[in-house]
Amino acid sequence: MTQAGELLSTTRLLLDSPAAASDPRLKNLLEDLELVLAQLSQLPAEHGKTELNLIREALVQRDVVPRLRSAVVSISSSDD
Question: Of 18, 31, 72, 73, which is least surrounded by CB within 10 A?
């Protein structure tokens, strides 16, 4: 299994977790992340720039990276 496939499996487990059920923002983030990881895991070994650009556009349009960073900061600060 590829790294994207492993992350996809973990993301799907998190989607089924009580944390995702109780936090709509987290659930939406995980759903968007799941979509991108599913696309990445299906990329052929010999992929072109077009496929990567489409995935990059999805990340930007759905604002995934900033939302992921925000979630990490939020989780990290709640652990203190």
Answer: 18
| pLDDT 10s digits, 22-34 | 999 999 999 999 9
- Backbone angle region of 23, left / alpha / beta, with phi > 0 → left and psi within -120 to 50 → alpha: beta
Q: Return the domain boundaries, the chain.
A: 3-79
Q: Confirm if 37 and 7 have CB atoms less than 8 A apart.
A: yes
**CA distances from residue 42 to 18, 33, 38, 64, 74 in whole angstroms, order as listed:** 28, 14, 6, 19, 31
CA distance 46 to 32: 25
